[in-house]
Amino acid sequence: MDVRFSGQSLFCQITRSELATLASGRSVDLIVHLPRHHVFRLSVRPSQLSAERGWKLDSDPTGIWLTIPRSELEMLGQTTTFAERLVREFPVSDDEKLQVILEALPDEEKDDRSVLEITPTPAATS
């Protein structure tokens, strides 16, 4: 998993094999070793809950934990030629939001790709 912060956005790029790991019910983690024997972890986990209740973002000084409904993860990986994204905003204060983007990379080279963004309709997420 590759992770990038930009403004009020968190981009998580995963490979098809990491997507398969999430689809099987297991988490995908990025662990960054820091000075003084500290570790920062970003963990993406599947949830069995519905789309509205299943998205969750938690953090503390040691890491960030993102939980995504398994039903939405299953929408990714339908094509091998496009990068596919799930996008969700989380309130972080009264007037600030953090946009989280989970992108499943296609099987082809990362530099030569197109992006297909998947936005579930309200009827599909109930």
For the structure shown, list the relevant keywords.
five-stranded mixed sheet, 9 strands, mainly beta, 3 helices, 126 residues, Gyrase A, domain 2
Summarize the structure.
With 126 residues, the chain is mostly beta strands. The chain has one domain (2-117): Gyrase A, domain 2, CATH 3.30.1360. It has helices at residues 16-23, 51-54, 70-73; strands at residues 2-6, 9-14, 28-34, 38-47, 56-60, 63-69, 82-91, 97-104, 114-117.
Q: Which fold name corresponds to the CATH topology?
A: Gyrase A, domain 2
Query: How many structural domains does the protein architecture include?
Result: 1
Strand line-up of the largest beta sheet: 1-2-8-7-9
Order of helices and strands: EEHEEHEEHEEE
**Largest sheet entry:** 5 strands, mixed
Instruction: Supply the number of helical segments.
Output: 3
Strand content: over 45%
Assign the CATH class. Answer: Alpha Beta
SS-derived structural category: mainly beta
Q: Report the mean per-residue pLDDT as an integer.
A: 84
Say how many strands there are: 9
Shape: globular
User: What distance separates the N and C termini?
Assistant: 29 Å
As a percent range, the share of helical residues equals 10-25%
List low-pLDDT spans. Answer: none
The CATH architecture designation is 2-Layer Sandwich
Rg on CA atoms, Å: 15 Å
